[in-house]
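Student: I would love a firmer grasp of how sequence relates to backbone shape in proteins. Thank you; the sequence and its tokens follow:
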Amino acid sequence: MTREEFITQIRQGLTGKVPATTVEDQVNYYTEYIITKVRMGETEEAVIGTLGNPRLLCRTIVEANRHAEGATYASSEDAAYVEVEEEKFSLASFGTKLLRWYLNLPAVVHKVVRTAAMILGLFLAFQVAKVVFPVLLFIWLIWIVFSLFRNLGN
């Protein structure tokens, strides 16, 4: 998605649901944000990817605006736009949401998470080895002693 498409979707999603000044403020904010990130070396697609779905952003902005104004939902059309169907909690849906959230994070965060996971894995492996190694050593020594006594009997 291009910057123009993203901004158009933001404008369309907010028009009629929040004051015109709020629409323009949000359009200006996201336009400047994308331009700034591109100037910092990121690609336009990557920046827009980290922002997420413009429809969800609009929903959040509309809801925050209504909360700030203390408004209630006047029409069923507005209520349908803002209300989200309740989902039953399941581990699969939670895992999917967590994976989507993780995949939308910047690449540097992925590297940090992978590094932390590797360090944690090594730490746990050494902790397990501290317990398992003496047990295996003890079993090996018993086996040697048993073998020696068995050979003496022959």
Observations:
- The mean pLDDT is 83.
